[in-house]
Every structure is written in structure tokens, then in C-alpha cells.
Design brief:
Order of helices and strands: HHHHHHHHHHH
Shape: elongated
Distance between the termini: 78 Å
Number of strands: 0
Low-confidence stretches: 9-13
Helix content: over 70%
Strand content: under 5%
Largest sheet: none
Number of helices: 11
Radius of gyration: 25 Å
Length: 213
């Protein structure tokens, strides 16, 4: 039985304050993540993926490098979280449906040549789970609308978009990352001529052209 002489405030002073303490902690955690990502985006844009370091990013964010590792694991994971890639599909000109393959090849060649972050993300995605997931998100979210507009069968849209992505990612890997001489030696016009019909078939070939069963 409580001591009647003990003031009520004294008896409740040690009550749990979980909600009061977790909210500020969560806000600090989110603020730290945001500061890391802001600093990382600036560093990756300024120094490029290879030259940017965890130590420099942490210094820019005003935190210890261990905090970057705590939240993102390593530079690959941080890059995958920080990078924002726009495939600029909205910039594609209005072209006849029978020219969509060649138009996409030319469009992606320009992207790979102008966007260092996209090439860096491809390198990361080849060896890092977070990078692979980020690349999957980019192509799923931005290629699907293009495939949906060209595809004759709505049920085949995901498969057709994925097949188109195999060509564009394969081209980027061999031409801009591995730099295979026979591929780097090809001109833009030659690449469009070789790959355009393949993308065209992936995106627009009638259902009867697909294997049965």
C-alpha cells in the first residue's frame, strides 16, 4: 500500500517514457541518414564513384565514418541508396510503333555516354545486392510504361520490358564497363542497325511469334 505521506508526483516520477524518448531518437536517425545521403550525392557527382570515399562523405556530413557504415554497410550500398537515375523516357520523341526499337537503342546510347552515375550503378549492381536491386527498380519502373505502350499483349509487358533491358544492360556492360574492343569499335549507327530490330521484336512481335507451351 503506497505511503500516504509520499506526494503523488514522487510516486510517478520514474514512470516509463518510451514514447517521449524514441521519437527524438528516430528523428535524429532520419536526420543522420538524410545528411549522409546529401553528402554522398554531392561527392559522387563531384568526384565520381571511384574517387569518392566514405571518409570524405562522412566529413561532409559532419559525422564519424563508422556511422556511414552502420547505416549503409559499405560504399556500394551507400551509392545504391543515394543515386537517382532518370532514364529520361519522357524525352523520347513521338515515333511510329515500328521505329521504337531503333529509337530506344539510340536513346540509351546517349544515356550511357552522358550519365556517369548510370554506368557506376551498373558496376555496383554487378557485384552488390543493393545496387542490383536499385538497377532493377530503375528499369522496372521506367521501362514498363514504354513496353506497355508498344506491346500487343498486356500480359507479356513485364517479360518484354525485361528482354529489352537485357539488350540495353548487356550493351552498356560490354561497351562502357568491360570495354570489349569489337563492341567499342562499333559506331552508333552500327549499334542501332544491329540492336534496333532485336528490341523491336522484343517489344512488338505478335503473340504467334512466341514459342508455345
Amino acid at each position: 500500500m503506497p505511503d500516504s505521506k509520499t506526494p503523488p508526483t514522487a510516486r510517478t516520477a520514474t514512470a516509463p517514457t518510451t514514447r517521449a524518448t524514441t521519437a527524438p531518437t528516430a528523428r535524429r536517425s532520419e536526420a543522420t541518414r538524410a545528411a549522409i545521403l546529401d553528402a554522398a550525392r554531392e561527392r559522387f557527382a563531384t568526384d565520381g564513384y571511384e574517387r569518392a570515399t566514405i571518409r570524405a562523405i562522412a566529413k561532409d556530413a559532419g559525422i564519424d565514418p563508422s556511422m556511414v557504415m552502420r547505416y549503409y554497410g559499405n560504399k556500394e550500398g551507400l551509392f545504391a541508396a543515394a543515386v537517382s537515375v532518370d532514364l529520361r523516357m519522357s524525352e523520347l520523341p513521338a515515333v511510329p510503333r515500328d521505329r521504337i526499337g531503333a529509337t530506344l537503342v539510340a536513346h540509351f546510347l546517349t544515356l550511357w555516354e552522358e550519365n556517369e552515375q548510370l554506368t557506376a550503378l551498373l558496376r555496383v549492381g554487378a557485384t552488390n545486392a543493393a545496387g542490383a536491386e536499385r538497377m532493377q527498380d530503375v528499369f522496372r519502373d521506367q521501362m514498363l510504361p514504354v513496353a506497355r505502350a508498344a506491346c500487343p499483349d498486356p500480359e507479356q509487358v513485364p517479360a518484354r520490358a525485361a528482354l529489352a533491358a537485357t539488350q540495353m544492360l548487356g550493351l552498356a556492360l560490354t561497351r562502357y564497363v568491360l570495354r570489349m574492343p569489337p563492341v567499342t569499335a562499333l559506331t552508333r549507327d552500327e549499334l542501332v542497325a544491329w540492336l534496333g530490330p532485336t528490341l523491336q521484336r522484343y517489344l512488338t512481335a505478335p503473340h504467334s511469334a512466341w514459342p508455345e507451351g
